[in-house]
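Hi P.,

Sorry for the delay on this. The queue was packed all week, but I finally got your sequence through. Input first:
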Amino acid sequence: MRVVLGEDLTLLRDGLIRLLTAYGMEVVTAVDNGPELLHALLHHRPDVAVVDVRLAPTFTDEGLRAAIQARLARLVRDRH
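Then the structure:
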């Protein structure tokens, strides 16, 4: 299973990468901010994303917004 990880805390991000890979998942990329997360989701098209809702630059809802934007873009792309 291909995973994109969006987490701003380095220690937690590294721990999640180790945990996921230990259980046979392929972490294709791990990012620490909303714009990079959106790019990673659109570029890598993972099977699953593990996303921190609050990411840089404002630490409010960038992770959530990136996930929603990527999902909508994927739905539109799959329809055509």
